[in-house]
Write a structure and sequence with these properties.
Helices cover 79% and strands 0% of the residues. By secondary structure, the protein is mainly alpha-helical. α1 crosses α2, α1 packs across α3 and α2 packs antiparallel against α3.
Length: 96
């Protein structure tokens, strides 16, 4: 059940991150989900560093850290993905 929950949280965080970043993101949904999962893990680590542990009820502080981390990860992965896609297209045009 842990992996299923991680995928669901990653999917939601990835979608929210894509929606909050200005402009169009070119990463596919599966990659946004992985970025959201990485953001959730990084956000949990940062929250723990700030002394926010699991609490009863909704842990808004931890979720904010997760979302911010997911936004950062999606932003940078989208830049890398776009650059790689552009280089691949340039190589393809040079061959033709």
């Amino acid at each position: 059940m842990g992996w299923l929950w991680a995928i669901i949280v990653g999917f939601v965080l990835g979608l929210i991150a894509k929606a909050l970043i200005p402009g169009k993101q070119h990463i596919p949904l599966w990659l946004a989900t992985i970025c959201g999962m990485i953001g959730a893990i990084a956000g949990n680590a940062v929250a723990r560093g700030f002394g926010i542990e699991e609490t009863r009820g909704i842990d808004w502080g931890r979720h904010v850290f997760q979302l911010v981390a997911a936004i950062v990860v999606v932003f940078f992965v989208d830049m890398l993905y776009t650059a790689m896609k552009r280089k691949r297209a340039e190589r393809h045009h040079q061959r033709a």
